[in-house]
Amino acid sequence: MGQKPFNDTFLKACRREEVPYTPVWYMRQAGRYQPEYREIRKQYSFFEINDNPEVCAKVTRLPVEQLGVDAAILFADIMTPLKPIGVDVDIVPGKGPMIGNPIRTVADVNRLRAIAPQRDLPFIGDTIQLLREQLSVPLIGFAGAPFTLSSYLIEGGPSKDYHKTKGFMYAYPEEWQALMDKLADVTIDYLTYQIASGAQAVQVFDSWIGSVGADDYEAYIAPTMEKIFTALKATGVPTIYFGSGAAHLLPIWNHLPVDVLSIDWRIDIQAARALGIEKALQGNLDPSTLLAPWEFLEKKAKAILDQGMAQPGYIFNLGHGVFPEANVSQLQRLTKFIHDYTKK
């Protein structure tokens, strides 16, 4: 695989440069929908895969080889950097990340340590270096954004409403800012380490930020994201910011020093551009359409592509991650359609 010419179409789109076709990759493109991944999980837990560079590289590489996508994303979890800073976290099948020592008090915020990725997470750097030798497409590193990380830390696990998280934010603004500062430093140090190890772009996942109103985002979160993306800009690699249900935040995000905004299906690309978004855009097929008949999926993808191609700087993706019920052959067919339809 390393002998193939390097395909930098994704990186060009991030920089809003001319591309020969629309690049595509899929959030959570390595995972439970793949029979091969399910076999690997019979032998290893999630974190055991992370800790083993050869296995982790294989899992990361698999969808590139299987689907023909234009970028790989490091196989890890947004919880990965939390263990070294003192968080008791486990990925529970059917539930997601569960926190054994959730944040309830100021003392809980203060006990969180700084991260030293080279010491604490050497296997991440080893996996990235291995993948750079093996891949002929760019490798995307990633991390969770402070709000989304804090939602797990405060709620103790997944939540539908984030009442405890936002309640903490409103009731203890100074302690909230201390938590944001700590998690911002973790995010910067972790992503900088990934980039130094060879990641060619990085995405910050703020999956649950849509639960926050625009005014609260401006007051409690925007300064933290400004700090993170300003620090990452110094590395020179493209940065991507993803949030679910966050169309109301796009005008604010447009002022952040980030290169690509990744949107979900609740706002179409044309509407996002009409808001004055001048950055590159990524998205935004509803993952549920992967279960639809091909004719329906093709029509949806075509409409998204027509809007995306209207301006430079567009990357096809889902509006959220691939889910276990998705079909490999459907994703293969979709990837081929995207390439064939947009080829110049």
UniProtKB/TrEMBL annotation:
<keyword id="KW-0627">Porphyrin biosynthesis</keyword>
<feature type="binding site">
    <location>
        <position position="320"/>
    </location>
    <ligand>
        <name>substrate</name>
    </ligand>
</feature>
<dbReference type="GO" id="GO:0005829">
    <property type="term" value="C:cytosol"/>
</dbReference>
<dbReference type="InterPro" id="IPR038071">
    <property type="entry name" value="UROD/MetE-like_sf"/>
</dbReference>
<keyword id="KW-0210">Decarboxylase</keyword>
<feature type="domain" description="Uroporphyrinogen decarboxylase (URO-D)">
    <location>
        <begin position="140"/>
        <end position="156"/>
    </location>
</feature>
<feature type="binding site">
    <location>
        <begin position="28"/>
        <end position="32"/>
    </location>
    <ligand>
        <name>substrate</name>
    </ligand>
</feature>
<feature type="binding site">
    <location>
        <position position="77"/>
    </location>
    <ligand>
        <name>substrate</name>
    </ligand>
</feature>
<comment type="subunit">
    <text>Homodimer.</text>
</comment>
<dbReference type="Pfam" id="PF01208">
    <property type="entry name" value="URO-D"/>
</dbReference>
<dbReference type="GO" id="GO:0006782">
    <property type="term" value="P:protoporphyrinogen IX biosynthetic process"/>
</dbReference>
<feature type="binding site">
    <location>
        <position position="207"/>
    </location>
    <ligand>
        <name>substrate</name>
    </ligand>
</feature>
<comment type="similarity">
    <text>Belongs to the uroporphyrinogen decarboxylase family.</text>
</comment>
<keyword id="KW-0456">Lyase</keyword>
<dbReference type="GO" id="GO:0004853">
    <property type="term" value="F:uroporphyrinogen decarboxylase activity"/>
</dbReference>
<dbReference type="InterPro" id="IPR006361">
    <property type="entry name" value="Uroporphyrinogen_deCO2ase_HemE"/>
</dbReference>
<feature type="binding site">
    <location>
        <position position="152"/>
    </location>
    <ligand>
        <name>substrate</name>
    </ligand>
</feature>
<comment type="pathway">
    <text>Porphyrin-containing compound metabolism; protoporphyrin-IX biosynthesis; coproporphyrinogen-III from 5-aminolevulinate: step 4/4.</text>
</comment>
<keyword id="KW-0963">Cytoplasm</keyword>
<feature type="domain" description="Uroporphyrinogen decarboxylase (URO-D)">
    <location>
        <begin position="23"/>
        <end position="32"/>
    </location>
</feature>
<feature type="binding site">
    <location>
        <position position="47"/>
    </location>
    <ligand>
        <name>substrate</name>
    </ligand>
</feature>
<dbReference type="InterPro" id="IPR000257">
    <property type="entry name" value="Uroporphyrinogen_deCOase"/>
</dbReference>
<comment type="function">
    <text>Catalyzes the decarboxylation of four acetate groups of uroporphyrinogen-III to yield coproporphyrinogen-III.</text>
</comment>
<feature type="site" description="Transition state stabilizer">
    <location>
        <position position="77"/>
    </location>
</feature>
<protein>
    <recommendedName>
        <fullName>Uroporphyrinogen decarboxylase</fullName>
        <ecNumber>4.1.1.37</ecNumber>
    </recommendedName>
</protein>
